[in-house]
């Protein structure tokens, strides 16, 4: 069974990822407007009413902005852990009981043809997760909004066929950003903040050793990064470790203002 994957939007402005297998189509997060998500889905030939689920990583608004709207309008079930449900209730609004699904972090569950593993991560949210989704012996994962990547998370992401990995900021750009108070800088740089371009490269090097051969860089900051800088930094650091980008490992970009590449894994 083939797995299909597409980042519809990725960045500090909003995050939405599409994954499909067999007759199952899901969104991981819905952090831009419902209208924008419907438009993005239209560009890849998917109707919102055919979605099987929305999987929620955590309660920050750039991940849940349209969760309630889409669920109510198209009768889409929403999956989140209990603590995230409690925290996002006011923002999301009413979700009909029949569409409200609760999972336990670090315990897998099924949505149609997809097996879903919610992976506990470190971020300044109540109970944030990354997601790894399986079908037919293949897997894809979305791992963003992490201040650090402990060995446990590396093991849970090991061997993923396609990984959307956070490459949020350039540390020097962030430190020199005069519009950010010091407290915000320290939050972003901390263990419950976001991965920098350099940290992303280190993580990908470790995951390469487990069999990861394709990664999409995502969740770039609007203010403290650029796609060109993220790609350059990650590529340069991987190549310094002896990897040839484009041969040993493939790198692509998830865009913060448009739909990214459409990947089919068979």
Explain what this protein looks like in three dimensions.
This protein has helices at 34-43, 61-64, 67-74, 82-92, 151-157, 171-176, 182-189, 197-208, 227-240, and strands at 3-9, 16-21, 24-28, 53-55, 78-81, 100-103, 109-111, 114-120, 129-135, 138-143, 162-166, 214-218, 250-253, 262-265. By secondary structure, it is an alpha/beta fold. It has a single domain (3-265), classed as Ribonuclease Z/Hydroxyacylglutathione hydrolase-like (Metallo-beta-lactamase, Chain A), CATH 3.60.15.10. The protein has a seven-stranded mixed β-sheet. It has a seven-stranded mixed β-sheet with strand order 7-8-9-10-11-12-13. The longest helix has 14 residues, at 227-240.
Describe the secondary-structure layout.
Layout: E1 3-9, E2 16-21, E3 24-28, H1 34-43, E4 53-55, H2 61-64, H3 67-74, E5 78-81, H4 82-92, E6 100-103, E7 109-111, E8 114-120, E9 129-135, E10 138-143, H5 151-157, E11 162-166, H6 171-176, H7 182-189, H8 197-208, E12 214-218, H9 227-240, E13 250-253, E14 262-265
Parallel strand pairs: 3-4, 4-5, 5-6, 10-11, 11-12, 12-13
Antiparallel strand pairs: 1-2, 1-14, 2-3, 7-8, 8-9, 9-10
Helix pairs in contact: 8-9
């Amino acid at each position: 069974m083939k797995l299909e994957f597409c980042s519809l939007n990725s960045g500090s402005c909003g995050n939405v990822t599409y994954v499909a297998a067999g007759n199952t189509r899901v969104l991981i997060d819905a952090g831009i407007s419902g209208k924008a998500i419907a438009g993005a889905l239209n560009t890849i030939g998917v109707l919102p009413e055919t979605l099987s689920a929305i999987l929620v990583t955590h309660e920050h608004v750039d991940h849940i902005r349209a969760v309630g709207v889409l669920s109510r309008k198209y009768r889409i079930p929403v999956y989140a852990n209990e603590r995230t449900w409690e925290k996002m209730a006011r923002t999301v609004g009413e979700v009909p009981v029949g569409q409200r699904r609760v999972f336990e972090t670090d315990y897998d569950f099924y949505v149609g043809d997809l097996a879903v593993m919610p992976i506990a991560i470190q971020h300044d949210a109540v109970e944030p997760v990354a997601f790894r989704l399986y079908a037919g012996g293949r897997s894809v994962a979305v791992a963003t909004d992490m201040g650090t990547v402990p060995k446990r998370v590396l093991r849970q992401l090991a061997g993923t066929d396609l990984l959307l990995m956070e490459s949020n900021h350039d540390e020097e750009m962030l430190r020199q950003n005069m519009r950010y108070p010091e407290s915000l800088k320290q939050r972003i740089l901390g263990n419950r903040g976001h991965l920098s371009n350099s940290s992303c490269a280190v993580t990908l090097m470790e995951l390469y050793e487990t069999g990861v051969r394709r990664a999409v860089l995502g969740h770039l900051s609007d203010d403290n990064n650029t796609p060109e800088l993220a790609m350059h930094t990650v590529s340069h650091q991987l190549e310094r470790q002896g990897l040839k980008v484009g041969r040993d490992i493939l790198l692509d970009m998830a865009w913060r203002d448009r739909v990214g590449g459409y990947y089919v894994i068979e």
